[in-house]
Amino acid sequence: MDPIEGASPVPSVAPYPGGVEEGPAPVNPASSPVDPGRVVPMVPTDTFPGGTLDPSESLPRPMGPTCVRSREIQCSNESTCDPHRPLHEKVGGHVGRWVHVPGWRRDEEHTSSDEIRRDHPYTYYVCTFASRSCAFLQPLDRFLQVRPEVPVSQHLRIRERTAAMPTVLSKAGALLVLTWLSANDVVGVHGRRSNDLTTEQVSSMCERTSNLDDISIEANASTVHWGYTYKGLPPLATVTSGDTIHVEMATHHAGDDPEKMVYGDPGMESIYKWDAEGMSVPQRGAKGTSDGVHVLTGPIHICGAEPGDVVQIDILELTPRPNPSTGKTYGVNAAAWWGYQNRNHMGLPNNMVDPNDQRDVITIYEVVEEDGKYYVQPDYSYRYDEAQPSTNCTTPSSGTLEGTDFGWSNDERVYSGVEIPCDDGEQTWPGLWFTGVVNRDNPSQAAYADYTGTGAFKMPANIHVGNIGLASDYDEPVDSVPPLPTGGNMDNRRINQGSTLYLPVQVAGGLLSMGDAHMAQGDSELDGTGIETSINGKFKITLHKKSEGLPLIVQDLDFPLISTDTAYVIQSYAFADYLYELENPMSSIYDNGNNLNRAMDNAYLKTRDWMMRVFNWSEDLAMSAITVGVDFGITQVVDGNWGMHAIIPKDAFPVAGPVDALSQDHSGAR
């Protein structure tokens, strides 16, 4: 949604049928924070054929039955419906419709004007008027959150739903749809993390029985958690099995060229806000020390998910996120200190490069579209030690994880093991020690910008999600970098559009988060990152219940399973679940997880066991089949817990019988 300042105007609805067109925002003098006792005017200025709604005027008395649906009051396409407090009336002989949010009601002391106040928001339903009848249009289970800093008028959006319109409405001649949008609304999310969904609100929202395909979470400072996952983090949205959700994902490397990837994009500006007054997202990492780097959108509560279940995620769409100010998309490859080339690995006597020449190199890539396909090509590069960007000091440097009782602190200002002191209100960064540093130099125009590689090659993009997973049942916030059995930072380029990901559930609701999207990356992610890019995605979520019998391919699943058009992909790591295999796991994983032998061992064992179970084979037969028909690959060697995957071709090893929620035919199973 819009940032706190400069929110865009509210669109208005043209007379039906005519669609939605841009118009002025409703006038709302309210600018102070919204609280449960505060009354806010809610009357739009839009004009009907034959009548006008004006915020300064009182609505006429009802000319027909009012139409509102709450959990107790039914509303259907009949000549009458159960009466309730009037929230909308016929105006000028024409028809309007109002979105009613149970718990948001007209203030009893202000019945002459259309005023409502926030009491206890849960779910809203759309009801409509046509002559003297009212029609239930469509239930939309959403939790309404209003961002306190934003005037209420800036939360309004007009949305037309012609596809779901009852026949009686097509004769009405005009429609007005006034919609409150919020944390889980069809357009985006507002609300501070401390105001996210409570257990009671999630339970209420999960009562819905019909599927939705227009849930959406936009990326902004209110919808992301930076550098960690945690089972205690309140969810932003709820989905039921079969729902489709749109999720925006912001890259954690946009600060490497903010002119191209931050400024002009309200959501990115919101996330990267960092000035003398403080940081919009100050906790970056599980303990605030950059011990975890990824900007993750979520979490998303999956109704009914329990430990032992499996969540299926169909990746329907992945598209680059252009900067609205330029219409262009850029990404970053960071050849970093944690890359394979810069570290002493596998017992080698020396680093891959001269220890005196270890360096962080930023390469900015441009995304281009040709004939409906995306490509990436290098634009320019620079060395981080030459740029040494300066920022305001990290503020605050300690706090409580919002929505939880977990405290974090970095008062010593030590980041990735390196102390960066605060001098005269600023910090200077000689290396990639802290996630999200904003280079204020306009680096593409700086003297250190190197254009010798501009356009040196152009390669097809492979848009994929690097970090997507469910929450671990670990009792503390978890570093976002090392991958887990529940997914997370797998950095597998096969998690792309058209593929399906299966993840085992460890906590109630699953708690799905995603981010770290890439325009391209080869197996190994050798130098430290892919082409880190902000991406918008569309996903279908399906829950497989253990209590109802799991599909064959996900029975006893304790690792991420990827399904593409041509193969099943077993994802494994050096430590299958390092949080429970190591002491002090979030520090010791970086000393122990850089082991390809262990990664290969686990990948083989997971593949052997899966094939024996799915095909009912002996170990000897499975070993032979793996040898002659399965390819193993190095997923990544940069994420602490190194990854190895096995590719099982579907044409050689078809799975018989029902496979998943998409298909009953194994030949096309996902």
The strand count comes to: 41
Strand percentage lies at 25-35%
Low-pLDDT stretches: 1-192, 345-351, 661-670
**Arithmetic mean of pLDDT:** 74
| Helical residues, percent | 10-25%
How many helices? The count is 9
SS class: mainly beta
Termini Cα gap: 34 Å
Radius of gyration of CA atoms, rounded to a whole number: 26 Å
> What strand line-up does the widest sheet have?
13-17-37-21-35-38-39-41-40
Word description of this protein:
Mean pLDDT is 74; it is low at 1-192, 345-351 and 661-670. α8 crosses α9 (619-629). 49% of the residues are buried. With 670 residues, the protein is mainly β. The chain has nine helices and 41 strands.
Summarize the structure.
This protein has 9 helices and 41 strands. By secondary structure, the protein is mainly beta.
Give descriptors for this structure.
mainly beta; 6-stranded mixed sheet; 9-stranded mixed sheet; 10% helix; 9 helices; 670 residues
